[in-house]
Amino acid sequence: MVIRLNESTTLVQTVDFFTPVVDDPYWYGRIAAANSLSDVYAMGGRPVSAMNIVCFPTRTLGPNILAQILRGGQETLRLAGAALAGGHTVEDPEPKFGLAVTGVVDPDKVTFKGGLKPGLQLWLTKPIGSGIITTAHKRDMISLEELQPGIEWMAQLNDVPGQLMVELGCPAATDITGYGLMGHAMEMARASGVRLLIEASQVPLLSKVAELRQQGAFPGGSQANRDWLEKSGQLHWHESVTQLQRDLLCDAQTSGGILLGLEPQAGALFAEQMAAAGRQAWLIGSVVAGEAAMEVG
Asked: What is the CATH number of the domain that holds 248?
């Protein structure tokens, strides 16, 4: 939700929480908090404060595990420069954690999903595949060491790309979460009334996800994403895009990167400035005129 307070300040308020995606409670807290903050960054904002949302079986799991989850969340807020302003806890048989976040943004620089226009480039700031690798780990298909790079990607804040894209005049952005890259890209196409051209080979993948998908690791949410998109009639796969690639591009993400549109000159600067900050960005497509839809080749 966006609330304009005055000529210079707009509030961005968002809330998100979910069940554990990894076994380690500290990293679960880090990832859930990063995910909760992403909506603010994707709208060009800066998080100011947050409140914990906790559902936890204290009677069965005890307070120590909860303390580690909250420590992870607090560490993420520290990195974001946002204050923890309290929260609320309820007894629940299944753990859930997240944040209600308040951020601020210049009213003239808010980035919405519907701001794409023909001629813009599409950039992505994190590799995809977190749904597949976390599912694979739950099925003992990969070790914790093999999962760790994915954990660190999920825990990474979208603060740097969020700041840079605003400075470079980004008109539209969204964070990539449960609907997957294709689902959230389709939201932008529909909201903007444009056609997106996605180059499947340019989309970055987490290590081993293609192999793991071939071995059977594929969350139900990812399959639901693909089914929904293909039934919509607005997603058009080029015949060169394999069935494996189609699955990977629809994988449901946790705390994914930002998908954003930039003018070509600004896009080049974005990639340079991301690299200078120790981050990465990938050019994965473009925006053209036409009915709201996506072509993936």
From this structure: 3.90.650.10
